[in-house]
Amino acid sequence: MDGIITLTIDTTTVLATKLAEHNRAGRMAAERAAVNGLVKAAFGPSAQTAHDPHGAPFIEGFPGHISVTHGGGYALLAIDREHRIGIDCEAYRPQLQRVASKFLSADELPVHAASPQALLRAWTVKEAVFKALGDPLLTISQIILPSFLPEEAMLEITLPQGKARITMQTVPLPAATSLATLVRAY
Hints:
single chain, 4-stranded antiparallel sheet, 10 strands
């Protein structure tokens, strides 16, 4: 597949590709095709993504962990043999500001909704944490972020049942308008 970006971030390999131009009606097909192309590039031409009962993706016969995302004009596939992972990619859109109170707590709002970039980072971190933890009873609004979210850090995230230790890293993408965050859970 042409145009694949391959990055190694600690124990995780991330493959990314720019999504094909499409109209609104063709968006889902373009996203699906891009993710399938990344899976085949990483695991071979016969590889297919399957989903567990909670919707999390996996590759049959692969003992490690994967996470996929499509947003911000990109499709990304994260692969890690050791750690549960989550990845999310988005471009800022005004809708995030309108729904901020649904995914940020009252204490998080003043910090993480202070600017479009801060809000985008909070959204991608929460989405990636949600995917990495794989807890079907957890909601994104229950994930409480620390007040400072650097581009790379080991953090403790507050959850209803206690704390979770994660590493969080920004995934460098060519488009400055898109932000991707990778999370590994320990």
